[in-house]
Amino acid sequence: MTLPRSNPRPQLRGDQNQCPTCLALFNSTAAFDKHRTGRFGDPSHPRRCLAEAEMLGAGMARNERGFWVTMLMGEAARRRRYADTSPAAIAAESPSSTAGNGIREGL
Ligand SMILES: [Zn+2]
Question: Where are the domains of the chain?
């Protein structure tokens, strides 16, 4: 008997990767890095994956193959309409300042 595979493993090429924690697919290491937040050893901001809604809020998007990208072409212009996503997007550009202000929890 063969079980149907609801989540077949896609073929990863180049810089594409899959998060071992949340199993999301990323088109680049930069996109993968952008979906990780928090800091190792910091109980108030533990290292974790962003939820899908948080990734979308940070300006990330999924391409036509289902891989997360840092942003789609044209997304930068669209993102300017959502002023409240700017801090997260800016923080995501500089990994050293991601923790603390990238994600506002508890809203
Ligand atoms: Zn993840």
Answer: 17-94
